[in-house]
Amino acid sequence: MVWVSAAAFGAAWWLGLYLLARDPRKLLLRRAATGLLAFAVAVVADRMAGADPWFDGVRIVLVCAPVLAFSGVFVRLLPAGVERVDRWWRAGLLPLCAVLALPAAGGFLPAGYLLGAITLLALLGTMLGMLGQHAEWAEDARRSAAGLLTVGALLLGLSSALILLGLNVLPRTAMLSVTAADLVVLGLGIAVLDAYDEGEELRADMTHSLVLSAATAAVFGGQAALTLTLAGERPALVALFFGAIAAAIGLQVLNGPLHAGADRVAFASDPQLCAARVELRSATEALLRKGGVND
Does the pLDDT value for residue 265 go beyond 70? Predict the structure, then answer.
C-alpha cells in the first residue's frame, strides 16, 4: 500500500506547492497550501509510524490540521465581516486548537476527539457562511469553484470524521488517500477562484505543472521505489522514497523562485542581466496563463 500513500502524498504536496507558488503574498493561498502540505506530512508520518498505538494521538492532530486550515480559507471567502471573523479565527480558534493539540498528541484521546469536533464544526460552519453569502455568484468560473468547495468540504468532513472515530470503512491508508482526494478538490476550487480574480487561464498552467511534476517524481522516486521493492519496506528506505518524491516535485513547482535566487547569486555583479532573465521567465510563465476567465 506504500504506492497508494505515495500517490496521495504526491497529489497533496504538488497542489500545496502550486498554490503557494502562484502568489505567496495572498493569505487565502497560503492557508490552502498549508492545509495540503500539512496533510502530505500526515501521510508520510502515518506510513512511517504504521499502527503503533503511540501514534494515535498524533494522527488525530495531523488529520485536524488541514481541516482547521481550510476553515480559515472559508473565513477569507466571506464577503462581509471578513476581518472581524478572521480575528476571531486567529485569536480564538487557533489558540484553542493549539491547547487541545498538545494533550491530544501526547495520547489523551478525549482532547483529540474534542479537537476533531471543533475543527469539523468550524469547517462546516464557515463553509455554510461562505455559500450563504455568495449565493449570487453567477459567473461560470465562480459557480464551478463554489461547487468544488462545497463537495470538497463535505467529503473532507466525512472522511476526517471517519478517521477520527476509528471507523474502518476502508483500510487506514485508503482512508487517507480518500481524504487527499477531498483536499485536492478543495485546492482546485481555490485555484479556480484565484485564477478568476487574476483574470488568468488556469487549465494550461496547472496541467503543465502537473505533467512535469509527475514525470520528475516518477524518474527520481522510481529509483527509490526500485530499492524499496528489492530491499523491503524499511523505515530509512520509506523516508528516502517520500523524500525523493517531495524533492522532485518541489524542484519542479518552485523552479521559477529557485532560478531567480540562483541568478541573484550568480549575476550579483550584473543586475541588468539578472533583471532581464527574470523578465524573460515571467513572460514565459505568463504565456501559460494567457487568456482571462473574464472574457
Answer: yes
